[in-house]
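Re: the 299-residue chain
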Amino acid sequence: MLALITGTGALPAVVAAHQRTSPIICALDGHKPVGLEVDVWFRLETIGTLLHKLVAQGVTDVCFCGAIQRPGFNPLKLDARTMPLVPTLARAVKDGEDAALRAILGLFEKRGMKVQGAHALVPELLPPSGVLTRADVPDGIDAHVTAAEKVSIEQGRADEGQSCVIRDGQVIAREDARGTDAMLRGLQDRPAKPMPVPDEDPFGAAMDFVGDVLDGAADWLSGPVAEARAKHSGGVFFKAPKPGQDRRIDLPTIGPDTARAVIDARLDGMVVAADGVMVLEREEVLHLLDEAGLFLWVR
């Protein structure tokens, strides 16, 4: 029996739809997947109880799929079955996001469950190699890709994002914890940004706002990066797995929303790693890029 450990987005529903037997849908609190009814909600503080339930229901395989923002952790909400796991989780979190993910995978494996990647359950999520659009790659693309691959290695070492944007051989945007779409939105025309309305932490909200403004301003100060970013169009979106990451979980994904964001950012096209980036709704992605005259190169 298969259980999907889900986050948000359309990927979990795609994986579920391709299974002969309906999987058990287990969603992290606050991360409802699109188009699926959740069978089991859980929190990081109750993951021990989740493991117990899955074993009791005869689950043999699990698949982690969907986007997840880093969850909070409240020691007061720990349940009895999770308490013994706290030292393992604490050590993993201290070592970074990738270590934390590997530790969580290990919890499932120790209970006899096999961890399956979404692309293993739905092989067509991985597109074939080559240029898939009507538009071909422009001359000089190799220099962009070389620069992007260097960024990918740096981001992997720093346990950061999986995508970046290159223009004129310069890195003009890097993915951070806010995700790919936020990175691409930052390349569009920048409207006046309203001061956020604080909830419980007005000082924290204000400092986040100031930080965002300063981060954006720093990109425009001077030098080749500023000159490249000041241009209104051109450039390449690049996405690839982090070097050395466990590809059973957190494999990069693009879809129609990514294509639209690349188009809105007035880039030339997209380069993604072969056998390393899943494409949701591939026909729609290619239709959008073809209509806009952009390329998609699976390299």
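The chain has eleven helices and 13 strands.
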